[in-house]
Amino acid sequence: MKQKLVLKKTPQTIIVISMRYLGDVLLTTPLIRTLKKAYPNSNIDILVYSHTAAMLEGNPDIHQVITTPQHPKVSDYIILFKKIFRQYDLSIVTQTGDRRFMYGLLSAPLRIGFIPSRSEKGRWKRFFTQGWVEFDNIKNHTILEFFKLSNVLNIPPYYALVPPKATHFISPTHFNITDNYAVIHLHPQWTYKQWNSQGWIKIGEYLKKQGLKIILSGGSGQDEKNYIQHIQLNLPQNTLNLAGKISLANLSHVISHSELFIGPDTGITHLAAATGVPVIALFGPTNPVKWGPWPINYNKPNNPFVTKGSQHINNIFLIQGNGDCVPCYLEGCDRHRLSRSECLDTLTSKKVIPFIDQALKNT
Predict the structure, then answer these.
(1) Within a domain: residue 23?
(2) What's the pLDDT at 2?
(3) What pLDDT, on the 0 to 100 scale, is given for residue 252?
(4) Are 131 and 198 part of one and the same domain?
(5) N or C: which end of the chain has fewer CB within 10 A?
């Protein structure tokens, strides 16, 4: 169910509120491009958490990236309110949370956003938005769900992701990379999305046999770097570890020149998908219909992936973990983000290697 908004005039200033993780921010870029195509003379700002802003570097559709801490203090709220209070003609809120809703309410007289269904808490929000859509967290891909918001405005969708672009590229040759290489992202944000270490080691050995150098991507957090360094000890000796050493925009550049990317269900896998290189995505409990990496040149108004099974769409090879319960949509077997997922722990390299062969044949 949705409520359409009829605009009396073109909004000159728009703010899009996208306050979740890196991958969510990247998945917002088709919506932003859609708005820019419809309103080319409008200034479009986006409000995100400070630690996700790097995903929008060099985005030509965005006038200004406004940031706030994920856990703001009173002083942070005051600073943000001064920046956004009634500064926009239109606000678009891409999540249902109360804090995001209040930012949208304060920033513009006209508001579009997701609201919970009538059976859930927060249904009162529909009375404070001029255009709204009931949020579906299961049946639609996130990008298609975001397009429901642009549909409220009766504007056509633009399907492609817009990856970050650095002003000054760090070329792979900067790291003495002259051979063909594959990029591996070992560490998702949450434990329940991790593949088993033995699988990564076997894959590393196989990639070496295919004549590919291995580059490891990762963030700058100490736990993540420790995890990556631990696995790196068992990977080929010439493996290059770039964790925490380059920006997301430069990582996007490095990935775009690779032969192959392999990663779990995480934001960097979405980023790799947007570069157009062959991507092997390892999925366990997560719903691939909702969160599968968006395939390059996929311009259809229906979900790229189905719920069950390993699948290949354009540049994406989505491999699903083992078990009849997959996907369970839960956060690990112990039902919390730091728990393991048996479906991924039992997924072997033997299941992944044929997809590697297929992906390399497509390059």
Answers:
(1) yes
(2) 62
(3) 94
(4) no
(5) N
Low-confidence ranges of the chain (pLDDT < 70): 1-3, 119, 171-173, 176, 178, 363
pLDDT of residue 363: 64
> What pLDDT, on a 0 to 100 scale, did the predictor assign at position 347?
96
pLDDT tens digits, one per residue of 283-307: 999 999 999 999 999 999 999 999 9
Q: Helical H runs in 153-221? A: 197-209
pLDDT value at residue 1: 57
Q: How many domains does the chain have?
A: 2
- CA distance to 32, 149, 316, per residue, from 156 (Å): 12, 11, 25
Residue 255's domain comprises 172-361
**Domain boundary pick from 92, 119, 152:** 152
Query: For the whole model, what pTM was predicted?
Result: 0.94
Separation in Å, CA 154 to CA 34, 108, 151, 209: 11, 20, 5, 52
Q: For the chain, count helices (H), then strands (E).
A: 12, 14
Q: How many residues does the chain have?
A: 363
Peptide bond into 327 cis (omega under 30): yes
CATH number at residue 27: 3.40.50.2000
> Sheet of 90-93: strands edge to edge?
2-3, 131-134, 110-115, 90-93, 13-17, 43-49, 64-68
Cβ-count burial 39-55 (b if 16+ within 10 Å, e if not)? beebbbbbbbbeebbbb
pLDDT of residue 112: 94
- DSSP letter assigned to residue 81: H
Within 8 A by CB and 6+ apart from 129, the residues are: 3, 104, 111, 112, 113, 115
Residues 191 and 269 reside in one and the same domain: yes
Nearby residues of 334 by Cβ (< 8 Å), 6 or more positions away: 340
pLDDT at 172: 64
Q: Rounded CA gap, 143 and 141, in Å?
A: 5
How do beta strands 131-134 and 2-3 pair?
antiparallel
Give how far the C-alpha of residue 26 lies from the chain's centroid of Cα atoms, to the nearest Å.
5
Q: Are residues 348 and 285 located together in one domain of the fold?
A: yes
